[in-house]
User: What shape does this take?
Amino acid sequence: MATSNTQTRIAVGVVGLIIVLGAASWIASSKANKPPRERRGVITKVDYATRKGSLKFVHPKTNDSIEVEGEITPDCAIEIDGKPGQITDIRIGDSAIVRVAVRSGKAIVSGLKITRIPGSQPAAAKAASAETPVAKR
Assistant: This one.
């Protein structure tokens, strides 16, 4: 009888270990680096100094409107209306296709294809105009 009891304890221990290792693997994979994806949306924020920006898009599976902040890498390929651009050319309200990957839980932007919407303005100009008081006559 002692052998049967020992075998049962070993079997339960092995099953428990498998469950713990499986859970740890699942948690690690959910935070792991994911391959780049493209998202189509509208630029809602851009900070030239910190190289961060936000994109609002509709999630393809849930149809929920989502806003995501990401880091724009120094070597990010930026294209505006088919021409090369730079981070300071990005404007709030621009329609964009963003190539983004998740690295260590952060969104990293490696490519931006922007379609300029007439009347949009650079983020710095929009922020300045919002803060500048209008003179009264």
Summary: The beta strands are 34-47, 52-58, 65-80, 83-84, 91-92, 95-103, 106-115, 121-122. The chain has two domains: 1-32, 33-131.
